[in-house]
Amino acid sequence: MHGHDPRTATAAPGQARRADDVLDMQRAARMGGSALLLRWLAGRTGAAVLLANRSGAPAAPPPQPLGRAEHDLVLHGIREASARGLRSVTLDEQDLTCVVLPLDGPPGVRAPFLAAVVARPIPPGLLLLLADAASGLSLCWQLERTRQQQRRLRDADARIREAVVHLLMNGQVATARLVAGALRPALPDVMRIYVIEGPHTIRRAVADTWAKAVDGAWVVPCPVYANHLVVLAPADCGTHAAMAVEPVWPRSVAETCCIGVSDPVPLRDTATGYAQAFHALAAARHSAERRASFAGHPDLALTIGPAAEAWAAVFLAPLRAYHARRPQDPDSAELLATAASWLSFSSKATTHLKIHRNTLAARLTLVQRLMGLDLERLPDQAALALALRVIGAGIRSGPEHRTSDAGGRAPSLDGLLALPHVVMWAQRQFRPVRAPGVPASIAQTLTTWLRLDGRIVPTAAALSVSASAVRKRLERSEALLQRSLLRSPSAVHDQWLAQRALDLAERSAAPPAASSATTAGT
Predict the structure, then answer these.
(1) pLDDT tens digits, one per residue of 60-107
(2) CA max distance for the chain
(3) Is the N or the C terminus of the chain less surrounded, counting Cβ atoms within 10 Å?
(4) Sign of CA dihedral 384, 385, 390, 393
(5) What are the distances in angstroms from CA 217 to CA 174, 190, 196, 464?
């Protein structure tokens, strides 16, 4: 073994060749970084080359795998260079020669080593060539390390932002604010939510546009849909229209993306705002402008009023009273969150909650058993969805409100849906599909689909049409209602409840004699 510094070697013949080699190395570094430069070096020298850290493990994939003898020789050389602080080490063993040179790195950072193993005798000029390559590889490695750190920071930032949105969607506002405190900007107190649907290639353009145009906007990849971006933008509620400043979109975004926009919502209602933006997105898909704002309809829970809370409290009592037997089992809060996520996102709740599909299935089975529900049926889904929305809305009854009937019992769901103002709400829900000029088959298909638990094939059979015809009619219903029906979050639960309210109203309005005759005939 002998130590030397080839960087101080006397210039040898072949200066022109060396200049060409340096130019080739610079070109390889520009085009492919350290990986291409190592491949060029291996081809130029015929040596087995690699970048390795102090343990001998590759710091980057080598152009070709090393044999056991070559790897042991490299490890020996790295240990010698590290222990003795040498600028280069050359080891001869049997018919192999190993040259090890440390790369230059920033202060306090352990840079890897350039190692080359070649059969003896070593080619003339190899040491000088390796020294030149080490200089270029040092710059490449530092640049790649910086870019890798930047990617990690961006990924960590994106994951934290996604976690904040996840917490907000589950109503955990205080925890979300705590986590978001380490990031900028601060979460807006009142915001509009944008859901932007488009190809992955334009995501960066969307994010950059928001960052430049709107102070305080949060741009987060959707935790459920891979082709969606979610934007939380401050809403200026001091103006009469409560408009947020929306950027002027680049042509690539305007022509390839669909954008749904929510009403201004407080931070605690992030889930509601997201659902609104998602419904607006369904309308945007059918719009020439490819953009739509949420067409406001009164929320059913707020339409019913304080009486809804008394019903929801009784309805959810078995679930809220549940206590897990084992520490690893879900408690009532987790079961409530799981049910809410599944009702909103269906099978994609696994992505939203970051749980396995078997875990989701087991939790839903427990929810069904505790509450005596069949979540394959749309009526039970709709009742549970409404109850969860009621407790999420935080409806509170004051002393002037009655939340039970004269017997002190909580009202039934049918009792709530039969209230006159709820029936008026239901009529508004169906008005767009029953408007003059709209084919009667649209409303007929929608109501049949709702009565058959939102299943396409049974609906097609009941109407004697194809499944694709049913789907097209439901898509037309989406455009008319400006609500998503076929993709989650879906308005299917509200539409079923509206249909139920109308059925109850029609039944109560039927003449007694006709009603008795009908019953007898049945």
Answers:
(1) 888 888 888 888 899 999 999 988 888 889 999 889 999 999 999 888
(2) 116
(3) C
(4) positive
(5) 19, 12, 14, 50
